[in-house]
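Narrative of activities, Objective 1.

The group set out to show that a structural description can be obtained from nothing but a protein's sequence at a throughput compatible with the screening campaign. Below is one input-output pair from the validation batch, recorded exactly as produced.
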Amino acid sequence: MFEKFIHAAYKNFYVDAQLFELIAVYGVRVISVLKSESEALEIGDTFTITCDDAVVICEVDKLHSSEVDDCVTTIRFGFR
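Output recorded for this entry:
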């Protein structure tokens, strides 16, 4: 089932267990990543967030440049 998706995904972001729990269980829908890791993403693009053997498939809702750190992008997303 996921074989078709893997080839269409732009990016995968690996997160620690605590952040994955916030995303998967408690409804957090933002992550901060290095700009160099998010350059290929645009609004509407699909990406995955993984932790160990768990994965959520996401779609970019909005990209924000960090006002605190010029090297960081905050991605607001929804689930696919």
